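Components:
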Amino acid sequence: MSGIPVQQTSSTFLGMPSFQRAAREALGDTQQRRNLAHATATIRAKRAQVVGEVEQWEALRVAGAEAKDEALHHLPDYLEQLEASLTDNGAVVHWARDAAEAGRIVIDIARAKDTDEVVKVKSMATQEIELNEALEAAGIAAWETDLAELIVQLGQDRPSHILVPAIHRNRAEIREIFLREMGGVGRAAPEDLSDDPARLAEAARLHLREKFLRAKVAVSGANFAIADTGTLVVVESEGNGRMCLTLPETLISVVGVEKVLPTFADLGTMLQLLPRSSTGERMNPYTSMWSGITPGDGPQEVHVVLLDNGRSHVLADEVGREALRCIRCSACLNVCPVYERAGGHAYGSVYPGPIGAVLNPQLRGASSDVDKSLPYASSLCGACFEACPVRIDIPSLLVHLRTQVVDEASGRSPEAASMKAASWMFRDHRRLEAAQRAATLGSRLIGDRTVRSVPGLGAWTQARDLPTPPPETFRQWWARTHGEDGHTEGDG
Amino acid sequence: MSAREEILARLRAATADVPTGPGARGEVPTIAATSASDVETLDLFVDHVADYRATVIRCSPDQVGAEVAAALARGRAHTVLVPDGLDASWVAAAQTAGLTLRRDAGADGERLSADELDGVDAVVTAARVGIATTGTIVLDHTPDQGRRALTLVPDQHVCVIRADQVVHDVPDAVALLEPSRPLTWISGPSATSDIELDRVEGVHGPRTLDVVVVDPRG
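Structure:
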């Protein structure tokens, strides 16, 4: 191992059960399965159509992967360049080793501005560091302004998808949440609110507008940070991003170090790949770019927090570092047969789906139940690799991580122990016959029920139902119907 | 060690196996669709903007003022924001149509507060670049477009773009833009698909987008 520290698992996800156990529970939620099946099928079809319009899609994917690799392979150089460009443009650059340090930086800036609230643009990095919780503990309210994030925040829920975090909620549930919760934190939802999506969006517009107009400080992430020009880019749909990036006097952007791109020209590639892969649109409604401060236009105090939080640990793995190319489009979630059925919560992290299965065990180290199980949360069908706009070979990374998990546990896992026992048993037919007799005896006790778990083989049988052993083995049946002379030679 | 030094040291250690220096990949490739003619590019732009349920009007240069006034009338606007550097003939047309003008002087002069902007119905601007393959308009917030808040808070945006400003694909636009400017890429009106992936136009940004395409060919 590299000796570079991993990310500390936050309290929200500490003690999460393995993916397979959590997924079994999620599979029982038929409403969620219906919502997910509808949503992922819709977005898959949209994506396929707009990707099909682009003749040079494969060349774009290669260029996208090369742009990210260029930045990642020389990350210290590009970060220093980014810092210099941002500073030249009037921004203040901060560095955060981990979630706690990033939280402290943001809290200190907000306190210096004498405010007890911030408005937020949807950002995976701030979710990862649980910034809202840190701000709340410091007495500062963090208002999520993306519609789906608002639904999740008001419902005291967790996001289940990178792009559409409330994908597990349907319109009736959202109406209930708005009616129940909006009034407690600001402008209430109208009493005659229906579950028509247009009416629900209107309620969110009215609820959030007063917050946008009065906010002094906004917090955002960034989709891209351009090293040579010191430009940050936020890609969005609703205009809540523009509100946060434009109206408050102070803007704080928390940016993972892997978000850096070498040059402004790389946006020519990335802005073709991201919207088509993500929302399945030719282009998302709004993209904002800002290079530090523009006098008389937008925030006059601009901070950028460059966040490590386990990314350097991922970068140290020559194979696994490919996962840092991820531009958080979520195309891999939408094509994944496992995600479609299990949903996002079972992945035990803000990064669900195939990319979460490779990113989380690398960011956090494969020590917890959920992180050890994630490399197995896949059938290795390969759909995620084909959909990935920056060509992350997720199936190969999963196999690479499985090797690491098994190596770490070698000799101590139940699988390893049972394989050792099996090899001892198969070496002698008398031992095998004795074992089979014991199993069939078990079957007469169990009756006609499927065996769902075997003591001591918990992990192995969690995702596999064991068929009930037959009442009679083949050897017993042969002896009964053909007599003992049917016994063949050749034991060894 | 400071956080900066420690993170950079970790990243250097993590990439110690990389034999090359920055710039190893060579020139940034330009991967863009091409067009047979300017006419084809402009037709595609108009189709794709309309696909987002924005209203697109094509007109000759001498009709711009009238089309701007007509779009504001359709949006039932009473008050309209005019950035400092907006073409005087468009402003005159809006004034003749009986709208109340609100001026925003930009960096040096008097500027409207966020609450005042919230009380205005519509805004009229020029544009910097249009992109045909995506139906996108890019603003760089020079004086004929005004600062960013002007095209964000009012509920209707009437945007005038000349045919010669429309390029074919995304990389063509990136090459033309000045990165030191704040840039806003607009593709249709504000929208969300967060509720069961049903697209709803109009959340926080302008719910009505009118694009007036000025084509000397008429």
